[in-house]
Amino acid sequence: MSLALWLVFSSAHASWTVNMAPGVTEVSRSVFDLHMTIFWICVVIGVLVFGAMFWSMLVHRRSRGQQPANFHESTTVEILWTVVPLAILVVMAVPATKTLIDIYDTTESELDIQVTGYQWKWHYKYLGQDVEFFSNLTTPRAQINNREAKGEHYLLEVDEPLVVPVGTKVRFLITAADVIHSWWVPALAVKKDAIPGFVNESWTRIEEPGIYRGQCTELCGKDHGFMPVVVEAKSKEDFAAWLAERKTAAAAEKELTSKEWTLDELMARGEKSYLTNCGACHQPTGEGLPPMFPALKGSAIATGPAEGHIDIVINGKPGTSMAAFGKQLSEVDIAAIITYERNAWGNSVGDMVTPQDILAFKKAQE
Amino acid sequence: MSAVIDPHHAGHGLTDHHHGPAKGLMRWVLTTNHKDIGTMYLWFSFAMFLLGGSMAMVIRAELFQPGLQIVQPEFFNQMTTMHGLIMVFGAVMPAFVGLANWMVPMMIGAPDMALPRMNNFSFWLLPASFGLLVSTLFMEGGGPNFGWTFYAPLSTTYAPESVTFFIFAIHLLGISSIMGAINVVATILNLRAPGMTLMKMPLFVWTWLITGFLLIAVMPVLAGCVTMMLMDIHFGTSFFSAAGGGDPVLFQHVFWFFGHPEVYIMILPAFGAVSSIIPAFARKPLFGYTSMVYATASIAFLSFIVWAHHMFTVGIPLTGELFFMYATMLIAVPTGVKVFNWASTMWQGSMTFETPMLFSVAFVILFTIGGFSGLMLAIAPADFQYHDTYFVVAHFHYVLVPGAIFGIFASAYYWLPKWTGHMYDETLGKLHFWMSFVGMNLAFFPMHFVGLAGMPRRIPDYNMMFANFNMVSSIGAFMFGATQLLFLFIVIKCIRGGTPAAAKPWDGAEGLEWTVPSPAPYHTFSTPPDMATLEAHRTDPRHD
């Protein structure tokens, strides 16, 4: 049923959608019910008050020879229209309080996932599982700049969705690495701010497998509109298989650090990682968006000694938007990106920074 | 505290009240006359309204279709930020200060504002402040791009370098607002004509008295907030940085402790104006004057204890969440009282629908719609779905555009005959109303829909499922925006000529401002009016 609803909502006709969707969890449905209850209460009050006003505007006109009455107070009526709305509010507050208490009960979770907002991507870490990854927008630039037809999930598609099992209470521990973001999936009725230095909690229990899409909902800088949230709910078996596969892949990725890399291999991987992790600010052309995001093409750092270059990528530059990527990316990716930056767009230092160099740099720092 | 007029002052006024305004440009630079200063506030506000409005046009043009067409995200963010700042601090607040300058002394029978020189200074700080603010758009790195709510650390560590100019601009306009508010409060409390007791004041004076106290209470909080930002950016403190032991959420608490009363600062004077206009065109006294005063005071009090409803998703504890939800829902009660009072004032009146009345009736209905969505937003669990989506954008534009702005238009049309001595063009006025009404609803009503369907606010691009209503919104916004040029034309036309206005051009109007000629002489009430005569006038059957 809920899946069908989503299909309806994402079809072409859905662009005239006027209401919230009930969502796919018990919580989202009770939120939807609250929304509809308060909406209908407002509609009834509106019809009564506006009805009286329109009646009055049609009938009590001077052009119809109406003589003005002179009444200007009535204690009874005034008390009545203070007390009755108060009573309606109390009636409304009861279910709202119940739902809120339920939403705040994050105990007894079966799976904990740490969600970290970065400018402008999400990082997911399955606590105690040794699985973590970034989730980046995959909508091509060409679609955004109207050079290609836009796909169905335009701006709502990512390389690695957050995968969760159905029928399981999943707890989200939400935080941020730079500015404030907000993690929102409408179908789950989960929206929680991701705040640097804080860990917020939220939870969900999805009933049906499916793909649920949302977006960052707190202005977080330039690409705030380009950091979607995609959650894929799988059956418990599929989820277990997926998790096992990810663990194996993570181990394989670690081994790459000790592999002997060639310049071409690093450049190829570097280009891909650069576009995913650096391109938003420094731009695919390496020309940046000065002065907020400096150019790398011909920059002193990217064409100077490798140590300085490694240092700024690993440790970032405090007081600016340049994040510390040392803990965000693998040694392989950092090495590949630095190598790429030193040899792309006409930069031609010609040297190669290997994963071992990065490892050595990190050790020296400790 | 009640109306004490210094006899020396009154005598002074008597001897030289014939002198008119100085000649030339220096009249406006040096003026201490409340009418001149009011006029300058109103023109400044309208200029800012057009500037902020043209930024809204850029925003709506970009959002006309999915994809990036007109501007890049970094400039889009500057547009949303500046649109908000300019409309709030440059258009709406100065417009009400302008109305207060013109009308409060005339409504209470005072010769001028209590502190005329400070009045001049309050005004002239504004062009300086906004000049500074707008100049940031031309600086390297661009202007403020962190939203009009400028949440840290986006507005501190991650801000463009021009943020320092933004902070200074906020300081200046804050000083201007505080001085303006002190002036209004001092005028109302000290310069009322003998016999004008507090409970006889027109509601516009009452709502401004309460607004004045709100301003004095919260503008210093905003100043503190931006000062902490300044310290964080330049002097190594960590008020809002978790890395240094500070707290980014503290910023939001401080900001909204200012910000929520601020939204009432932008609406209470409109409540007051409409409470004068509806009785005038219904030819029937305002229903429930006393309850209007108490409702305004209750709203002002509640505005101080609801700030965290802007922060339901930041992770405040359950008990805090419940407290702010209940307190916010309570605001519906006094607001409801006001709406019921206006409707009852209309009931069994003898109504005509000149432009001020059209804007006032639309104000009541559309502001109430904004109130309904406000009530929905108060329900914390539902707010998790609405928060920071276009539903919120729809909500606050419904309370600000047909609320504050329509209140200002209604006031302008109502008092233009008094200001200029001419009647405005009624046909064009009505056209202005209907175009604004249709444009505004077309622009903002569909925002409820895209918000509920899941479109976050402050994004330059969106999925196709939001496309249709965004296009409708943009068309409505262009219509509303273009219509405001018509208003400019109507006002200029009215200043330059037209049917001469009687001292009291509206047969149902009440109040001291209608006892002086139109246009109002440069100095009015140099001698306090005789309230007894006015009382006698009030008891006259109006429809004779």
TrEMBL record, chain A:
Keyword terms of this UniProt record: Copper, Electron transport, Heme, Iron, Membrane, Metal-binding, Respiratory chain, Translocase, Transmembrane, Transmembrane helix, Transport
Cofactor note: Binds a copper A center.
Cytochrome oxidase subunit II transmembrane region profile domain: residues covered: 12-107
A UniProt-annotated Pfam family: COX2
Domain spans labelled Cytochrome oxidase subunit II copper A binding: 108-245
Enzyme class, UniProt record, top EC level: translocase
Gene3D superfamilies from the UniProt entry: 1.10.287.90, Cupredoxins - blue copper proteins (2.60.40.420), Cytochrome c-like domain (1.10.760.10)
Cofactor: Cu cation
Known EC number: 7.1.1.9
Membrane topology: Multi-pass membrane protein
Parts of the chain that traverse the membrane: 38-58, 79-97
Recorded catalytic activity of this chain's protein: 4 Fe(II)-[cytochrome c] + O2 + 8 H(+)(in) = 4 Fe(III)-[cytochrome c] + 2 H2O + 4 H(+)(out)
Location of the Cytochrome c domain: 265-345
Family stated for the protein in its record: Belongs to the cytochrome c oxidase subunit 2 family.
Alphabetized PANTHER family for the sequence: CYTOCHROME C OXIDASE SUBUNIT 2, CYTOCHROME C OXIDASE, SUBUNIT II
Name of the protein in question: Cytochrome c oxidase subunit 2
Native species: Pseudomonas cuatrocienegasensis
UniProtKB/TrEMBL annotation, chain B:
Catalytic activity: 4 Fe(II)-[cytochrome c] + O2 + 8 H(+)(in) = 4 Fe(III)-[cytochrome c] + 2 H2O + 4 H(+)(out)
Pathway assigned in UniProt: Energy metabolism; oxidative phosphorylation
UniProt xrefs under Gene3D superfamilies: Cytochrome c oxidase-like, subunit I domain
Chain residue ranges for the region called Disordered: 1-20
Lineage top rank: taxon: Bacteria
Keywords: Cell membrane, Copper, Electron transport, Heme, Iron, Membrane, Metal-binding, Respiratory chain, Translocase, Transmembrane, Transmembrane helix, Transport
Alphabetized SUPFAM superfamilies for the sequence: Cytochrome c oxidase subunit I-like (SSF81442)
TM spans (from-to): 40-61, 81-102, 123-143, 163-191, 203-231, 263-281, 293-312, 324-344, 356-380, 392-416, 428-449, 469-492
Domain Cytochrome oxidase subunit I profile stretches: 28-532
EC number: 7.1.1.9
InterPro entries given in the database record: Cyt_c_oxase-like_su1_dom, Cyt_c_oxase-like_su1_sf, Cyt_C_Oxase_1, Cyt_c_Oxase_su1_BS, Cyt_c_oxase_su1_dom, Cyt_c_oxidase_su1_bac
EC category: translocase
Cellular localization per UniProt: Cell membrane; Membrane
Keyword Transcription in record: no
Similarity-based family: Belongs to the heme-copper respiratory oxidase family.
Protein name in UniProt: Cytochrome c oxidase subunit 1
Taxonomic source organism: Pseudomonas cuatrocienegasensis
Taxonomy of the source species: Bacteria, Pseudomonadati, Pseudomonadota, Gammaproteobacteria, Pseudomonadales
